Amino acid sequence: MPVPWFLLSLALGRNPVVLSLERVVGPQDTARCSPGLSCHLWDGDVLCLPGSLASAPGPVLVPTRLQTELVLRCHEETDCDLCVRVAVHLAVHGYRGDPDKEEKFGRAADPELEEPRNVSLQAHVVLSFQAYPTAHCVLLEVQVPAALVQPGQSVGSVVFDCFEAALGAEVQIWSYTQPRYQKELNLTQQLPDCGGLEVQDNIQSCWALPWLNVSADGEDVRLVLDVSEEQRFGLSLYWNQAQGPIKPWWHSNLTGPQTITLNHTDLVPCLCIQVWPLEPDSVRTSICPFKEDPRAHRNLWRAARLQLLPPRGWQLDAPCSLPAEATLCWQALDGGPCLPLVPPLPRENVTVNKVLEFPLLKGHPNVCVQVSTWEKLQLQECLWADSLGPLKDDMLLVETRGPQDNGSLCALEPSGCTPLLSRASTRAARLGEQLLQDVQSGQCLQLWDNDLGALWACPMDKYIHQRWVLVWLACLLLAAVLFLLLLLKMNHVKGWLRLLKEDIRAGAAARSRAALLLYSADDASFERLVGALASALCQLPLRVAVDLWSRRDLSAQGALAWFHAQRRQTLQEGGVVVLLFSPGAVALCREWLQDATSAPRAHGPHDAFAASLSCVLPDFLQGRAPGRYVGAYFDKLLPADAVPALFRSVPVFSLPSQLPDFLGTLQGPAAPRPRRLAERAEQVSRALQPALDSCFRPPAAPGTGRGMGPEAGDRT
C-alpha cells in the first residue's frame, strides 16, 4: 500500500519552496551605511591577513555581528548569478568615560592635556570571503560622528553588495578591523542549489537539470527521470553521514529518460540522490527524501552491527548517524534479562563508525553491550562470546567503597544487588560467605576497579559440583546394581546391548554437530549440487544450515545479517563453517584479496557467500580460522591449485574423492570408526552422483543466463 507522505513529486530546480530574491543590477560592488554613518569601499582587492591583536588606544569601532542575504546579480534579464550580501554591525569599544582606566593610563593627571571627548571615530573594516577554490577580501572605511560615539553602544551597520558564489557551495565569511582589536567574527553558510530556490529562469546553469520524480511502487521506491532522449546525465546515490565524508553507494552515467527501482530494504534516512548534466562545470543538485520514512529508520537499525576491536575496543557500524546511548550489562547463563552495569559504570553516547573503549580491566563472555534510544533497546551483543567462548556460570559481585576504606559487596541478580551476608533466599545469599572468601583469596576475576568500587566475576561451577556429587554417587551405585542384575540374565544380554546401541545412536543424533555451508551461486545446476550435498549431510549426525533453505529469512534480514547470526550460533555450539569453493567463489575471494580497501561489487539479495567475505576473511588474516573452518571443492569443477593460498591454513578436501576424510573432519570427535565412515561416504557419494552428472552436462544455449536488473549499477 503506498505511503501518503512518500508521494513526492520533486523537480530538481523547481522546488515547491519559493524564495523571492532581490536583483542587483550591474557588475560593480557597492557599500552603504545606516543613517548617521559614512562609508567608502576601497577599489581592488586587499590582502586577507588579519594580523596580530593590538591594544586599543581609546574608543575604537569593532564589528559585533554578521548577517547575510542571498541576492541575484544580473547582467541581463535571464543571465544572473547567485550573490551573498553581507551586513556588518558595528559598536564602540574602549575605556573613554571610565575614570578608573583613565587614571591607569594617565589621562586624568592633567585635564588641560586631556583629548576632547566628543570626537568622531574612523575604522577600516575588512570582509574576507572564501568559497572553495577562491578567496576574496574587500576593505570598507567607516566614519562615525562624535554624537554617536558612546562606549559599549551599537552605532549602526555597513552593507556590502556583494560576493558572487556558486550554487550549492559552502562559504565562509570573516570580519575584522585593521589594526585588529579583537578576535575576528566568522560565519559559515551552505548556499542552496537549484532545488532550493526558484531561480531556474534566471540562472542558466539550472536550465539543463533533469526532472526527478520519487514515488512509491508497492513496497519499493521508483525514481523516474524525465529528460530528453539525447541528454546525458549522472546519477549518484550516497549516504550523507554526519560524521565523516559522504559515502558513495551507487553511481551511473545515464541517458534519459530513465526509471530506477530501489528495494525498500535499501532505504535508510541518510540515503540521498544527486543528479547533474554531463557537461563541464555543471550544477549538482541533491535531495534526501527518506529522512522521516519509518521504514528507513527500521532498516538502519537492522543494518547496524556491533564489532569487537581487540584488546578492549568496540565499534558501532552503520551507514547513518544514530542518536543512541551504550551501556554494558551482565548476561547470566540462565537466559534471564541482561542486567545493566549502570551504576557503577556510566552510560556513553554512541558515535557511529568510531572506536570506543571498554572501561574494563579484562574481558568476559558474559559482559554485553546494549545500544538503546529513548524509546527502547535496539541492539544487544555479547562481543566476547566469539573469542572467549560461550557464557559462563559466574556470579558478578559489585564492590562499593566508601570513605575510610569502608566497603561492601553485593551480588548482581535479577531481583537487584543482594548483599552477600544477608538472609535473602537467593543463591548469592546462601553462598555469601564462600563468595567473600573467593574474592579475598583471588579466585575471582577483577573486571573493573577505581576509587569508588570494583566488579568481580566469581565462578560458580565448584558449588554446583558439590551439590550434585552425592546424587552422582547414588546414580553410579544404582547403575552398578542394575548391571549385575543384567549379568545374571545372560539370555537378555544381547537384546540389552542392541537397545544400548540404539540409545547411543539416538544420543549421538541429538548431540549432532552444527555445520554452516557457504557457497557461491554460480548457476542453477551448481545450486542443485549444493542442495544434494546438504541433504546428504543431514542424513548423518550433522545439523546443516544453508541459505537455500532460508530464503525467507534472507529476504527479511539481509544476507550479511543472516550469515552473522548463523556463524555466531554455529561457532558457539562448537560447529564448523564449510567454505565450498567453485569458480565463482574463487573469483570473489581474489577480488577481495586484490583490493581489500574498496567495496565489493553488487551481488544478488540471497548471495550469502559474497556477503560473508567481510567476516570470513578477517578470521583467516588474523589466524582465527583453524578449528572453525573447513574448505572443499568438487574434483571436476575446480583444479586443486585454484583455491587461494590464504584458505589452505585449514583442511581443504576434494569431493567426492576425499569424502571419508571430509566427513570425519565435519563430525569431529564424534566421528565413527573408519569402516563405518567409509560406508557413510559411499552413501553421500551415491546421493551426489545425479547432481554431479547434471552439473557436467554441456552448457545451455547463449542467452539463457541470468541478466542484470536496473539495480545492478556500478556500486562504489
UniProtKB/TrEMBL annotation:
Q: Which InterPro entries does this one have? A: IL-17_rcpt-like, IL-17_rcpt_C/E_N, SEFIR_dom
Q: Which keywords describe this protein according to UniProt?
A: Cell membrane, Glycoprotein, Inflammatory response, Membrane, Receptor, Signal, Transmembrane, Transmembrane helix
Q: Where are the transmembrane segments?
A: 468-488
Q: What segment(s) does the record annotate as region Disordered?
A: 688-716
Query: Which compartment or compartments is the protein found in?
Result: Cell membrane; Membrane
Keyword Protein biosynthesis among record annotations: no
All residue ranges annotated as the SEFIR domain in the record: 512-664
Residues annotated as signal peptide:
1-20
What membrane topology is given? Single-pass membrane protein; Single-pass type I membrane protein
Q: What is this protein called?
A: SEFIR domain-containing protein
Q: What is the lineage of its organism?
A: Eukaryota, Metazoa, Chordata, Craniata, Vertebrata
